[in-house]
């Protein structure tokens, strides 16, 4: 792993992962995207499903909500994130296989998985094409995969849009304005830890055609 990769791993372990579930993961639009991506997979009993960049495990929970009889394998470069993911899965009474692994070099034989899910990972990897190639390699012939790619509207603008959508959703649910405002301010404070990620140079953004 490069020095930049090691630095990013340290940032995730010490800063990002401890607050993730209290910040971005709580935004309605963010949760809806997870649910929509999982729903697009036709999950069958005994399917072997790989989650690349599983993080703290929220997409695994979405998978279990749709079908508990699949076999989930989650990989991430962060040990602290995987520990959180394991705790979440155990609360659901499900043991999932979790491995510390670099998405650029997936340590699995070709055609190992029926489904592959890779959400909000391409924003952080050094070579998105290499990661995508690895996903295709480990996918069985006729299998399904879902990958999200950053668009040109990512970064600081994305964070603002998520906050805006969160506030609109809360107000629309009938909650009192004061409570919504306090929640907004709390998320803003927690969101400060994301600034290094939001403002860092981006090597690549992707269009629909790519």
Topology of helices and strands:
Elements: H1 3-20, H2 28-39, E1 48-52, H3 58-66, E2 71-76, H4 79-91, E3 97-100, E4 113-118, H5 128-138, E5 139-147, H6 156-172, H7 177-191, H8 195-199
Parallel strand pairs: 1-2, 1-4, 2-3, 4-5
Please describe what this structure looks like.
Helices cover 48% and strands 14% of the residues. It has 210 residues and is an alpha/beta fold. The chain has 2 domains: 3-147, Vaccinia Virus protein VP39 (Rossmann fold, 3-Layer(aba) Sandwich); 156-199, no CATH class. It has a 5-stranded parallel beta sheet with strand order 3-2-1-4-5. β4 (113-118), α5 and β5 form a beta-alpha-beta unit. α6 (156-172) packs antiparallel against α7 (177-191). The longest helix is centred in the first third of the chain and has 18 residues, at 3-20. The protein is globular, with a radius of gyration of 17 Å. Residues 154-168 have low confidence and may be disordered.
The structural class is alpha/beta
SSE run:
HHEHEHEEHEHHH
The CATH class designation of the largest domain is Alpha Beta
Shape: globular
CATH superfamily of the largest domain: Vaccinia Virus protein VP39
Overall mean pLDDT stands at 78
Q: Strand order, biggest sheet? A: 3-2-1-4-5
Task: Kindly estimate the percentage of residues that lie in beta strands according to DSSP.
Answer: 5-15%
Instruction: From the alpha carbons, calculate the radius of gyration and give it in angstroms.
Output: 17 Å
**Straight-line N-to-C gap:** 26 Å
Number of helices: 8
In the CATH classification, which architecture of the largest domain applies? 3-Layer(aba) Sandwich
CATH topology of the largest domain: Rossmann fold
């Amino acid at each position: 792993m490069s020095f930049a990769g090691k630095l990013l791993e340290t940032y995730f372990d010490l800063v990002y992962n401890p607050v993730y579930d209290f910040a971005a993961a709580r935004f309605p639009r963010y949760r809806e995207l997870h649910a929509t991506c999982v729903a697009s997979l036709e999950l069958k009993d005994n399917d072997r499903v790989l989650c690349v960049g599983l993080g703290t495990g929220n997409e695994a929970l979405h998978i279990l909500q749709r079908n508990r009889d699949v076999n989930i394998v989650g990989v991430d470069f962060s040990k602290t994130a995987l520990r959180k993911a394991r705790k979440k899965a155990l609360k659901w009474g499900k043991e999932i296989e979790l491995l510390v692994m670099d998405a650029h070099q997936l340590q699995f034989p070709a055609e190992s998985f029926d489904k592959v899910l890779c959400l909000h990972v391409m924003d952080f990897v050094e070579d998105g094409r290499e990661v995508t190639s690895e996903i295709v390699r480990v996918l069985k012939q006729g299998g399904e995969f879902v990958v999200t790619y950053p668009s040109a509207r990512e970064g600081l603008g994305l964070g603002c849009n998520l906050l805006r959508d969160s506030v609109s959703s809360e107000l629309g649910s009938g909650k009192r304005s004061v409570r919504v405002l306090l929640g907004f301010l709390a998320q803003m404070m927690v969101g400060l830890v994301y600034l290094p990620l939001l403002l860092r140079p981006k090597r690549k953004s992707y269009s629909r055609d790519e």
